[in-house]
Protein backbone atom coordinates (compact mmCIF):
# COMPACT_ATOMS: atom_id res chain seq x y z
CA UNK A 1 0.00 0.00 0.00
CA UNK A 2 2.84 2.41 0.73
CA UNK A 3 3.95 2.30 -2.91
CA UNK A 4 0.41 3.16 -4.05
CA UNK A 5 0.25 6.10 -1.64
CA UNK A 6 3.67 7.32 -2.78
CA UNK A 7 2.52 7.16 -6.40
CA UNK A 8 -0.63 9.07 -5.46
CA UNK A 9 1.50 11.73 -3.75
CA UNK A 10 3.74 11.96 -6.81
CA UNK A 11 0.70 12.39 -9.08
CA UNK A 12 -0.49 15.21 -6.83
CA UNK A 13 2.93 16.84 -6.66
CA UNK A 14 3.47 16.82 -10.42
CA UNK A 15 0.10 18.46 -11.06
CA UNK A 16 0.68 22.23 -10.98
CA UNK A 17 -3.03 22.95 -10.59
CA UNK A 18 -3.25 20.72 -7.49
CA UNK A 19 -0.10 22.19 -5.96
CA UNK A 20 -1.54 25.68 -6.37
CA UNK A 21 -4.93 24.63 -4.99
CA UNK A 22 -3.34 22.91 -1.96
CA UNK A 23 -0.74 25.56 -1.15
CA UNK A 24 -2.67 26.61 1.97
CA UNK A 25 -4.09 23.16 2.88
CA UNK A 26 -2.00 21.64 5.66
CA UNK A 27 -3.54 18.37 6.78
CA UNK A 28 -2.59 14.94 8.04
CA UNK A 29 -4.66 12.04 6.76
CA UNK A 30 -4.55 8.71 8.63
CA UNK A 31 -5.20 5.71 6.40
CA UNK A 32 -6.26 2.70 8.41
CA UNK A 33 -6.78 -0.66 6.68
CA UNK A 34 -9.52 -2.49 8.57
CA UNK A 35 -8.16 -5.92 7.71
CA UNK A 36 -4.49 -5.33 8.65
CA UNK A 37 -2.70 -3.93 11.70
CA UNK A 38 -0.95 -1.20 9.72
CA UNK A 39 -1.21 2.58 9.71
CA UNK A 40 -0.37 4.79 6.76
CA UNK A 41 -0.57 8.54 6.31
CA UNK A 42 -0.59 11.35 3.83
CA UNK A 43 0.38 14.90 4.70
CA UNK A 44 -0.31 18.03 2.73
CA UNK A 45 1.87 21.05 3.38
CA UNK A 46 2.46 24.10 1.18
CA UNK A 47 1.01 22.33 -1.84
CA UNK A 48 3.05 19.14 -1.56
CA UNK A 49 1.83 15.72 -0.51
CA UNK A 50 3.96 13.13 1.28
CA UNK A 51 3.11 9.51 2.07
CA UNK A 52 4.40 7.30 4.82
CA UNK A 53 3.79 4.43 7.17
CA UNK A 54 3.66 4.44 10.94
CA UNK A 55 1.83 6.02 13.84
CA UNK A 56 -0.14 9.23 13.40
CA UNK A 57 -0.49 11.44 16.47
CA UNK A 58 -3.15 13.89 15.33
CA UNK A 59 -4.98 13.26 12.08
CA UNK A 60 -7.29 15.81 10.52
CA UNK A 61 -8.95 13.08 8.47
CA UNK A 62 -9.28 9.32 8.79
CA UNK A 63 -9.84 6.89 5.97
CA UNK A 64 -10.86 3.32 6.86
CA UNK A 65 -11.48 0.42 4.49
CA UNK A 66 -10.09 -2.97 3.58
CA UNK A 67 -6.56 -2.85 2.21
CA UNK A 68 -7.65 -3.75 -1.33
CA UNK A 69 -10.27 -1.00 -1.45
CA UNK A 70 -7.79 1.62 -0.25
CA UNK A 71 -5.23 0.53 -2.83
CA UNK A 72 -7.84 0.56 -5.60
CA UNK A 73 -9.09 4.03 -4.64
CA UNK A 74 -5.62 5.60 -4.32
CA UNK A 75 -4.39 3.95 -7.53
CA UNK A 76 -7.36 5.30 -9.45
CA UNK A 77 -8.76 1.90 -10.46
CA UNK A 78 -11.86 2.39 -8.28
CA UNK A 79 -13.86 5.55 -7.79
CA UNK A 80 -14.24 6.29 -4.08
CA UNK A 81 -17.96 6.95 -4.61
CA UNK A 82 -18.99 3.30 -4.94
CA UNK A 83 -17.34 1.91 -1.78
CA UNK A 84 -18.24 5.08 0.15
CA UNK A 85 -21.92 4.75 -0.75
CA UNK A 86 -21.83 1.03 0.12
CA UNK A 87 -20.33 1.78 3.54
CA UNK A 88 -17.09 -0.02 2.71
CA UNK A 89 -15.03 3.19 2.71
CA UNK A 90 -15.34 5.37 5.79
CA UNK A 91 -13.97 8.90 5.77
CA UNK A 92 -14.05 11.07 8.89
CA UNK A 93 -13.18 14.73 8.86
CA UNK A 94 -14.61 18.15 8.20
CA UNK A 95 -16.92 18.59 5.24
CA UNK A 96 -14.45 21.05 3.66
CA UNK A 97 -11.63 18.49 3.87
CA UNK A 98 -13.82 15.74 2.42
CA UNK A 99 -14.69 17.99 -0.51
CA UNK A 100 -11.00 18.78 -1.01
CA UNK A 101 -10.19 15.05 -1.23
CA UNK A 102 -12.97 14.60 -3.80
CA UNK A 103 -11.57 17.44 -5.91
CA UNK A 104 -8.03 16.02 -5.70
CA UNK A 105 -9.12 12.59 -6.94
CA UNK A 106 -11.22 14.19 -9.68
CA UNK A 107 -8.29 16.29 -10.91
CA UNK A 108 -5.91 13.30 -10.92
CA UNK A 109 -8.13 10.59 -12.43
CA UNK A 110 -11.19 12.34 -13.82
CA UNK A 111 -14.66 10.90 -13.35
Walk me through this protein's architecture:
This protein is α+β, with helices and mostly antiparallel strands. It has a single domain (2-101), classed as Nonspecific Lipid-transfer Protein, Chain A. Helix content is 43%, strand content 24%. The chain is built from 5 helices and 5 strands, in the order H-H-E-E-E-E-H-H-E-H. Strands 3-2-1-4-5 form a 5-stranded mixed beta sheet. Strand 1 (27-33) and strand 2 (40-45) form a beta hairpin. The longest helix has 15 residues, at 95-109.
Write a compact overview of the structure shown.
Helices cover 43% and strands 24% of the residues. With 111 residues, it is α+β, with helices and mostly antiparallel strands.
Helix and strand pattern: HHEEEEHHEH
CATH superfamily: SCP2 sterol-binding domain
CATH architecture descriptor text? 2-Layer Sandwich
Distance between the termini: 23 Å
Number of separate domains? 1
Which structural category do the helix and sheet elements fall into? alpha+beta
Low-confidence segments? none
**How are the strands ordered across the major sheet?**
3-2-1-4-5
Strand content: 15-25%
CATH topology: Nonspecific Lipid-transfer Protein, Chain A
Instruction: Please state the CA-atom Rg, rounded to the nearest Å.
Output: 13 Å
How many strands in all?
A: 5
Number of helical segments with 4 or more residues: 5
Q: Report on the biggest sheet.
A: 5 strands, mixed
Amino acid sequence: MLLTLEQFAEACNTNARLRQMNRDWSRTIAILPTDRPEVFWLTSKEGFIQAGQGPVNAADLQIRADHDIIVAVFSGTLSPTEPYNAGDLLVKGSQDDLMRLDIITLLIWGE
